[in-house]
Amino acid sequence: MKLGTSFFKSETPSHMTVRQVAMVVTVLAASLALIVVDNGANNGANNGANSGANSDGAFNVTEVSALAPMPHVAAADALTTNWFCPGVPANDDSISSNLVISNASEADISATVTLLSSGQTPVVNAVSIPARSHISLDARGGISAQFVSAVVEIIGSQGSVEQIVRHPAGDAVVLCANQPETDWYFADGFTGADSIEQIVMTNPYVDATVVDITFVTADAERSPEQLQGFVLPANSVTALSMDQQGARNEPILAVSIRASSGRLVAGRVQHYLGQGRLGFSMSLGASAMSTQWWFSNGEKLAGNTESLVIYNPSSRDRSLSVVFVNGSDSANSIDPLLITAPAHRVITVDTGGIPSLPVGRYGIIVSTNDQDLGDSLGVVVEQVINRRDGNTVGTSVVLGAPRNSESTTWSAPSGVTASEDSLQIMNTTSQEGTVSVLQVGPAGAVVLGGLENLVLPAGGVLSIGVPAGLPDAQIIVQATTTVVVQRLLLRGYGLFGRSAVHALPHLPLVDNFLSETAP
């Protein structure tokens, strides 16, 4: 397959990198036993893809690493891979949704898909995914409910899963978790101008899960009585509209969920209706705080506003550094922005208000300075970009990539959409590297024409475009250094702007899980 090189562009202005900040980071060592729906013990994650050219020019996909959505990182099990999706709206015919299951391996795989809702018996189906292909299923499965969530259990092999929501206000590709967790966090909530925010909680177990829910507005932290000891029934999906929980017309709204009994998967649905935000987004929450968050697509461009929303759920103030990088000569760098994140509060950094930050694209690193307090006292950071063209606005929100999720290989199970900035890649090291973009097809993983061995500067960023006509299929990004990869996707319906979601990192397998849960 050949793609024109004119769709590739590199963003490397002659200014901005960071003095005194080391870019070399360690690769995450992590694993955790995963409990499946029937409470049996099965470990879960997904082996990833490295590629090596064979005699016919195709690339062989080998199972050498665990594939995990951020910030989940679990050990791969040779027999089972489990994916827990945060749910899709299922009571509005103007909204459609799909479940994409990708198989990059050389053998067919089978999977069990369990659909959960509220007050209804789980619906279970068996599916088969041919080698080097993917299948797309109706994520609602014919169920009428407020939300429907999917649990995908791949038997005897490895695969990857994402969900797609097609909403009249904009499409959203949503990562799925590879295990439920006890803690979930959302930094950027918004109910201004009567915008809709719903927290969608899935309990995939046969026993009830009990949670305590706290939220933070611009004024204070609140723990409503009705949200303490809140019961999530067995095998169920529960959605909370935050305006009905006392958080109506709030421009700042962070949420913490902690299970006192059981575990869950949590996602956030947003329909923005004004006060500078328009559009639809859905995302998986953060299952842990982190002492470092990476963003590969910072934008200071005409018509855009960009904010970093930082939530500190812990009981201690945190000292933070915000670093902007694009791989240029350190002699022209800007100093890190030093800020304090108060305990149990939210702060917002308007990057457009930083005079020394030049116009263009860049990477962003938000790090805690008081590392001695431990990773469990990290923060949660999301990036909000409002792209404007006249009176038209498109809002995107993305959770950063947490510390140690950097990888040399990343996958996009549902692929990318055609645009001049489809993939945003950030080099997390002080070494120059190269990047290649592959697509999985009948011949295996094949490098896309013009997108092979692209130079990625040390500590630099790269914007890669993909033209129209690319088949829907899994995309693999491979680099010679560790990188962070984000997708910018068209919103559908001819809508202006982009939606944002990370690809999935392939991470080494080790024996122990390094949890970054709250104290």
Highlighted features:
0% helix, 519 residues, mainly beta, globular, five-stranded antiparallel β-sheet, Hypothetical Protein Tm1070, Chain: A, disordered C terminus, 50% strand, single chain
Gist of the model:
The chain is mainly beta and 519 residues long. The protein has no helices and 41 strands.
How would you describe the overall organization of this protein?
It is a single chain. The chain contains no helices and 41 strands. The model is unreliable at 1-65, 72-79 and 509-519 (pLDDT under 50). Helices cover 0% and strands 50% of the residues. It is an all-beta fold and 519 residues long. The chain is globular. The protein has a domain at 46-170: Hypothetical Protein Tm1070, Chain: A (Sandwich). Strands 1, 2, 5, 33, 34, 35, 36, 37, 38, 39, 40 and 41 form a twelve-stranded antiparallel beta sheet that branches. Strands 6, 7, 9, 10 and 12 form a five-stranded antiparallel beta sheet that branches. A hairpin with a 2-residue loop joins strand 35 (433-441) and strand 36 (444-447).
